[in-house]
Amino acid sequence: MSKDVLKFVRPSLHGLKPYIPGKPIAEVQKEFGLTEVVKLASNENPIGPSKHAQQAIQAALGDLHRYPDGGQLELKHELAKFYNISEDMIIVGNGSDEVITLFCTTFLEPGDEIIVPSPTFSEYMFGSTLMAGKTVEVPLREGFAYDLADFAKAITDRTRMIFLCVPNNPTGTYIKHAELESFLQNISPDILVVLDEAYNEYVESEDCAQGLEFLRKGYNVAVMRTFSKLYALAALRIGYTMAKPEVIGFVNRVREPFNVNHLAQVGAIAALHDKEHTESSRRVNSQGKRVLYEGFTKLGLRYIPTEANFILVNAGVDSMQLFQSLLKEGVIVRAGSFFGLPSWIRVSIGLPEENERLLQALAVSLQELKATV
Ligand SMILES: Cc1ncc(COP(=O)(O)O)c(C=O)c1O
């Protein structure tokens, strides 16, 4: 096929851009001849995977000739016990990314609408574009605060799903539980409200919305969680969603039979129960957050208080230039231009020494960039 390929590609996909992931450490090492590179670009858990998960994966290596459990029975059993819900309320995917796509595949016909905050995680729009759906973006307010009245106004008779990312990526801002409850009370139960809680386990504010409570009360919500963040298994690709059995039952029909590999399933079960690992992950994040807040303040930078494991910072310079300059210093961050925020960067909270490296590199890069303006 030549450039005429566009004749064969579905028109609704013509504008689709490939996802640009955070730059890998090895690539930066090679490109800049560096040995020590700190990656704070993809909101990964800096303390590394749980030892128990690693042992469970080692022990499972001899089973690699077998297909994984296509029903993910043991993992669903453990998750159901963990949350005190029934197993038919859970679907497991090859990362939450896959589950987002599965929900869009299941519920969207061409022209159907989803509502998302702006800025937010790009996969909701990706899923709706795949299905020739329309993504209605609702800008967040001053300080990237949610105002659910704006979302209510965006509802039309084509709205099928509302994706609310809590805490929101890339802003770290959240929705108050009471505000979400009155929103849910006032919208049609035919609209599925998807709460992407990828960073829920890091939340410190007690008034943050908890999707599971709404699911238990019978609202039409789906609660997305992942093993990629607090549970530190991003490389294995495993996430899950909890919703009413009838919702899960349909999404399950769209799922491929062996979508989650065996090592991911056994690793996830072990990680779920490794309290020491999850508690130290939360502690490192909470302490790192405070150190970075202080460091940004000293550098005169405005940041958005976060409930997650990353912070959005207004660097006051072009984010792509700053991104490039930080790479030379051996620090990988996420440029805000990916989210339509050209003077902001998003940084993941790292280990104490990584946070220190980031603050030092920022001081150097900002001085250089401001001197050249
Ligand atoms: C808000 C949000 N949801 C979902 C995901 C994807 O999670 P997973 O690694 O399980 O696909 C991410 C990853 O960064 C995210 O930020």
Automatic annotation (TrEMBL):
Q: Which NCBIfam families match?
A: hisC
Q: What SUPFAM superfamilies does the annotation carry? A: PLP-dependent transferases
- Which InterPro entries does this entry report, sorted A to Z? Aminotransferase_I/II_large (IPR004839), HisP_aminotrans (IPR005861), HistidinolP_aminotransfase (IPR050106), PyrdxlP-dep_Trfase (IPR015424), PyrdxlP-dep_Trfase_major (IPR015421), PyrdxlP-dep_Trfase_small (IPR015422)
Record GO biological process: L-histidine biosynthetic process
Encoding gene per record:
hisC
EC no.?
2.6.1.9
Q: Name one Pfam family in it.
A: Aminotran_1_2
Q: This chain belongs to which protein, by name?
A: Histidinol-phosphate aminotransferase
Q: Which cofactors are named for this entry?
A: pyridoxal 5'-phosphate
Q: Which organism is it from?
A: Effusibacillus dendaii
Keyword Iron listed: no
Q: What region holds the Aminotransferase class I/classII large domain?
A: 36-362
State the family named in the UniProt similarity comment for this chain: Belongs to the class-II pyridoxal-phosphate-dependent aminotransferase family. Histidinol-phosphate aminotransferase subfamily.
Q: Please give the superkingdom of this protein's source.
A: Bacteria
Pathway involvement of the protein, from the record: Amino-acid biosynthesis; L-histidine biosynthesis; L-histidine from 5-phospho-alpha-D-ribose 1-diphosphate: step 7/9
| Catalysed reactions listed for this entry | L-histidinol phosphate + 2-oxoglutarate = 3-(imidazol-4-yl)-2-oxopropyl phosphate + L-glutamate
User: What are the alphabetically sorted keywords of the record?
Assistant: Amino-acid biosynthesis, Aminotransferase, Histidine biosynthesis, Pyridoxal phosphate, Transferase
